[in-house]
Amino acid sequence: MTIFSDRTGRAAGLILLAFAGLAIAFTLIVPPFEAPDELYHYGFVRYVAGGNGLPVQSTVSTGPWEQEGSQAPLYYLLAGALSAGVDQADFDALAVRNPHANIGDPLYPGNKNRMLYSAAPYPLAGANLALHLGRWLSALLGLITLFFTWRTARLALPGRDWAALTALAIVAFLPQFGFINGSLNNDTLVTAVAAATVYWLARLLAMPQAETPSVRDWLVLGVLLGLAALSKLQGLGLFVLAGTAVLFMAWQRRDWRLPLRALLPVALPALLIAGWWYVRNVRLYGDPFGLSNLLEINGRRRDPLTWDGFLREFRGLRYSFWGLFGWFNILLPGWIYRVLDGFTLVSFVGLLIWSMRRAAGPAAAG
Length: 366
Known about the structure:
Blueprint: H1 7-29, H2 38-49, H3 74-82, H4 91-94, E1 96-97, E2 115-116, H5 126-156, H6 161-172, H7 175-180, H8 187-205, H9 215-231, H10 237-253, H11 258-285, H12 291-298, H13 307-322, E3 324-325, E4 330-331, H14 334-360, H15 362-365
Antiparallel strand pairs: 1-2, 3-4
Helix pairs in contact: 1-5, 1-6, 2-3, 3-5, 5-6, 5-8, 8-9, 8-10, 9-11
């Protein structure tokens, strides 16, 4: 019996199909390069697709990839491989920037379109086809994220299939999740790998204490961590999560040799997959993360963060979690954010009540 053959599995499959339809719609409806930094992500992919290797960042001339050239390369290598045979010579005609665009703050008036377009339709050919191949890769990665979200929820909430389906539906139908997974963006890969890693850690933690993870279990974890580290720098945070999980397992079993047994089969594949890129950064920029060079390109904050500045940043975070389109400059109707905020508040209160009942005892928690 497959995981989609029972009633819950079929319901999950329907949610995944619905998301796939939404994500594909985003890939086709959103005009070329009208997603955050998509123009720069495309520049990286196009460079790789041309057989040029990885870009080398310069503080003097950043290239068409701008700051994205400092990103970990796995997404760009995959998207570049997909579009390697596509003639993208028409890129300059497709990517005409709007000099009057106001981007980055949805409350500013002015042009919302980052690019300039003609009234003629854009065929799926040339640079536009290469762009859409990357977008479709992102849609597939979104499905992977959702699949492992559902599987993790089933592990965390055994016997509560409705809760796992609810978690799946919430993520699947977040407007921002569909939008980003319908764009050419490396966040889609690191999110998918993170979801798979969290699932694998949950699976290890759910093992009976009498069982010990096998070498294969640790090798899979190492591969996932390596993929995360090669997807985006933020993927390194999963190493901390994995280390914490391993220490917790050792404490559960009172087996303090367990972390030592896990070290080699986890570290070896992670280093083989991602280590070369960090060594490259040291050789090119003098630090393993390339952050010193990136900060020179992007610039540092000149003034200390004030309370007003924090509130503005939080406002942007709130918008962009629920749904913020274009280049962070197109909002949903205001009432939608208020409804979703209310949903969040009710969910938080419910979690608090459940936690209090659980602390009081299993019978009270229900």
